[in-house]
Amino acid sequence: MSHQQSFEIRTRGRGTTEITAEVARIVRAAGIATGIAQVFVQHTSCSVMITENADPAVRRDLETLAARWAPDGDPAYRHDTEGEDDMAAHARSLLAGSAVSVPVGDGELLLGTWQGIYLWEHRTGAQVRRVVVTVLA
Amino acid sequence: MSHQQSFEIRTRGRGTTEITAEVARIVRAAGIATGIAQVFVQHTSCSVMITENADPAVRRDLETLAARWAPDGDPAYRHDTEGEDDMAAHARSLLAGSAVSVPVGDGELLLGTWQGIYLWEHRTGAQVRRVVVTVLA
Amino acid sequence: MSHQQSFEIRTRGRGTTEITAEVARIVRAAGIATGIAQVFVQHTSCSVMITENADPAVRRDLETLAARWAPDGDPAYRHDTEGEDDMAAHARSLLAGSAVSVPVGDGELLLGTWQGIYLWEHRTGAQVRRVVVTVLA
To answer: Please, what is the average pLDDT of chain B?
Structure first.
């Protein structure tokens, strides 16, 4: 048994948007007691990630570390079709991934107290991002 | 059809604990012939990962590389509420992830010969970690 | 309901091989309308990843960044049983992961326009790699 629903997010450039509530709503609508909820972005320059939901400084520090590994406009890049942040965005998408899966129990997301689900926009400009949530029993 | 079971692990600070046997036991208890087993930690400062199970030096080298990217006490961090290893632990959690999924066939985990499942503690102090295993048919 | 099928890939050393078509074929054979397809490698020195499928320079740049974080023959490595690329390959396997999961809708992989599924060989020599695809409804 499975339930699938998509939604769109309008990002304002690089940074994170919490989507835990949207995903939790879809899980409840699925009416599935025990299973897994998968959250997937149909893009190669943004990510879905699970991280600490209390202090926004954590997400700022993750930006710092991501930029340290894959800086914008690195002279080593050969791919720069869409600008200085283009290849950096693909690299961050590899680091953080394009999907997360969360167990579902008693019809709810089994996240720990400090875990939140975030869409992480890696491009510097605003984008519209499509998120597909699939709940499996 | 799904089967879910949780267990706790007492870590002794930064380092890895193999959990392949515990996961395999839950998969067998599930009585599911073909499907997927997902292993998820409800924390943002430890990871579950699949890596080489023969030479412990591999996991020590992964520590070295993780520390290279996200050192403890980096002056760039703004988040340090719980000490020098706090932000480094969240970063390592992003790098290695908070879940792995392994295919199940003939009722067993379809791991390769050299693959082991590890809980990777990223905090320097001992912790109690909760692991949720969900097996889907 | 689940469907599982494996295949082998002969790599020619470090680099990427697109496997989107093979995975799509297995998804179609599964006859599952809505669900998830998981693609898993039974090895700790290669990866499966989703990345941009238009410009091959993206994958070359990912090699550059992977090598920056985990260079071959780094003097810090203690594990070098199989040569200079051995530990680097395990590290890259952690960075990119050993599995991806893609939602299935209307019986097809719900990939975005620019997303492709790649086997990423991390060893410098040619290898035979086993890929397990599991489709869950």
So the answer is: 98
Please tell me which of the candidates C62, C111, C136 has its beta carbon nearest to residue A42.
C111
Whether A1 shows a pLDDT value over 90: the answer reads: no
Sign of the alpha-carbon torsion through B19, B22, B28, B29: negative
What's the rounded mean pLDDT across residues C60-72? 98
CATH code of residue B132: 2.60.120.460
Q: A132 and C110 in contact by Cβ < 8 A?
A: yes
What radius of gyration, in Å, describes the C-alpha atoms of chain B? 16
* Of B47, B63, B40, nearest in space to B96 by CA: B47
Lookup: tokens for C120: 């990423």
**C-chain residues within 8 Å CB-CB of B97?**
97
The closest alpha carbon to B3, from B135, B120, B97, B95, belongs to B135
Q: Give, as one character, the DSSP assignment of residue A42.
A: S
What mean pLDDT is predicted for residues B48-55? 98
Number of independent structural domains in chain C: 1
Query: What are A12-37's pLDDT values in tens digits?
Result: 999 999 999 999 999 999 999 999 99
Percent of chain A with pLDDT over 70: 100
Q: Does C91 touch chain B (CB under 8 A)?
A: yes
What is the domain extent for residue C128?
2-136
Give CA torsion, residues A25, A126, A129, A98, to 10 deg: -100
- What is the distance between the alpha carbons of residues C111 and B40, in angstroms, rounded to a whole number? 24
- Residue A103 has a pLDDT of 98
pLDDT at A78 over 90: yes
Task: Check CB contact under 8 Å for C64 and A77.
Answer: yes
Q: List the single best residue of B52, B68, B104 to mutate versus C (max C Cβ within 10 A).
A: B52
Is residue C61 within 8 angstroms of chain A, CB to CB?
yes
